[in-house]
Amino acid sequence: MGHSCQYLCSEIITVTYEDAPGEICQSIANLEEISRTCAVVLMDERPRLGSPMYLSVNAHDLFGVITSSVYDATLGWFVTVTLDADSTWQPQSFSPEHLLAVCVCSLERGTRTKARTLENALVT
C-alpha cells in the first residue's frame, strides 16, 4: 500500500449514514481532514460505529465505514470514516476550498516558499 498524505480542510458537506438497521439519517457536517483512505468529519450527533456513511462533497460522493468517534464538549463529534477501496480520494478529483497538507512529503515536493509558509503557519 502506498503512502497517503493527510490534509486539513474545512468544507461543509452532507453526510448520509445508517443510524440503526434500516434507519437512514442525513445531516450537515464539516469535513475536517481527508486522505486517500480516510476522512474525519465534525458532526453534532454521534453516528453508530460500523455504520456505512456517504460523504457528499462538491457534487462528489465518497463512501466508507465509520471506524471511530471522539467527543469534544465544545465542538461535537469528530467521526473517522475509513473509505472503501473503490471510493478513494485524490486531490486531482476534487479539493475542498480550504486544504492544507500536513505531511512531510508535501514539504519535500514544495518550493522553499511553500515550505516556509507552512512552517510559519505551524509556529504561530
Task: Name the descriptors.
single chain, 124 residues, mainly beta, Thrombin, subunit H, six-stranded antiparallel barrel, 2 helices, 7 strands, 15% helix
Question: N- to C-terminal separation?
Answer: 34 Å
CATH architecture: Beta Barrel
Helix % is 10-25%
Q: Assign the CATH topology.
A: Thrombin, subunit H
Q: Give the integer mean of the pLDDT values.
A: 80
Broad structural category: mainly beta
Which CATH C-level class is it? Mainly Beta
* Shape, per Cα inertia axes: globular
Itemize the secondary structure elements and their pairings.
Layout (H helix, E strand, L loop, with lengths): L6 E14 L2 E12 L3 E6 L8 E6 L2 E13 L3 E8 L14 E4 L2 H6 L2 H12 L1
Antiparallel strand pairs: 1-2, 1-4, 1-7, 2-3, 3-6, 4-5, 5-6
What does this structure look like?
The chain is mainly beta and 124 residues long. The chain has one domain: predicted glycosyltransferase like domains (Thrombin, subunit H), CATH 2.40.10.220. The protein has helices at 104-109, 112-123, and strands at 7-20, 23-34, 38-43, 52-57, 60-72, 76-83, 98-101. Strands 1-2-3-6-5-4 form a six-stranded antiparallel barrel.
Short description:
The chain is mainly beta.
